[in-house]
Amino acid sequence: MLEHLELFFKSIFIDNMVFAVFLGMCSYLAVSKKVSTAVGLGAAVIFVLAVTVPLNWLLDQYLLREGALVWLGPEYADYNLSFLSFILFIATIATMVQLVEIVVEKFSPSLYNSLGIFLPLIAVNCAILGGSLFMQAREIPSLGLALNYGVSSGIGWFLAILAIAAIREKIRYSNVPPPLRGLGITFIITGLMGIGFQSFGGMLTGDNEPPEDEQTPTTVKQVEEKELINKEIEDEEKAVSYNEVIKE
């Protein structure tokens, strides 16, 4: 449970797709002029990441990585299809994006028209592909953690675009210097928001190692060295006590 919570908060705040690795910046900047549009695109990104990351985890575990085909028989244990990762990941993402596009067009034509070309372009959104590649690179061990990572990464991207959209709506009525209007002030705000999100890193960091006197040896050699040091300390204490008795 603790592992799930740590991954959830870390993916949203510390390893945020926008503020930490700068993925999905095109849609982030282009569709963040209105909160309503940002909410629609953010929800679509959450859905696509929540579906594609676990699906691509299954593909990676049972098809792509070295030895993944062993379930077909021992003769397939040496096969390595990792060179197909990009192709299959993108195919999975494109399928899910097409499904989202059909659903949005059917149930919310106004949102579909406001998102325009950026809805089908989710298929080539760096944040979507990045979620699957980061999942593969970090070797997430279970399907549940992969689902957690997909949802939390999507929520992180959603919060980023929602926050900048709300700020950009308000900043229209502010007295921004002419050279900074538009993308200039947006980049400055994004940088400040990134600093704020990175400050959450303190929640999951810290010295978790026990004090030196409480650390337990883990190897036979360390045990022998510790016993030898303890014996030397006892011998020194006995020698000091003996000298004190002689002086008296």
Q: Low-confidence parts lasting 5 or more residues at pLDDT below 50?
A: none
Report the radius of gyration as a whole number of Å.
27 Å
- Give the number of helices: 9
Main pleated-sheet profile: none
- The portion of residues forming beta strands comes to under 5%
Shape: flat
Strand and helix layout:
Elements: H1 2-14, H2 25-30, H3 35-64, H4 85-107, H5 109-115, H6 126-137, H7 143-171, H8 183-198, H9 220-247
Helix pairs in contact: 1-7, 3-4, 3-6, 3-7, 4-5, 6-7
Structure characteristics:
248 residues; mainly alpha; 9 helices; 66% helix
Question: Short description, anyone?
Answer:
The chain has 248 residues and is an all-alpha fold.
